[in-house]
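Predict structure. Chain length: 124.
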Amino acid sequence: MTAARPEDIPGLIAASFNANDPQAMIDLFEPDGVLVTPPDGTQRVGRAAVAEALTSMFTAITAADITLTSAMRSGDIAMTHANWHLTGKDEAGEPIDLRGKGTVVSRRQPDGTWRILFDDPVGV
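Prediction complete.
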């Protein structure tokens, strides 16, 4: 999956969760992209670190609904905000029901697609 516009990224993130395809989400990041992981705000830099952080999330989350709420662009940089709702089950089989508002900063690539530079799922 690739983003033709920065506004496509939230939907593609949701699609990767709903398809249980962590690689699809990892591929949305630039090679040195940053994922901020809750609850402590640890910054995971680079696709390998992002992949490591996403492993447990994709094990637990079975459904995602992510709705774009705003977008801004300046040249080849964009910032989007979205409301998200993730559901699933934890290791003990207990339900997970998480909601929040996040921010993604993306950059246009030489081929015209957009990739994530910064993803802060609680950064609104």
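Summary: The mean pLDDT is 95.
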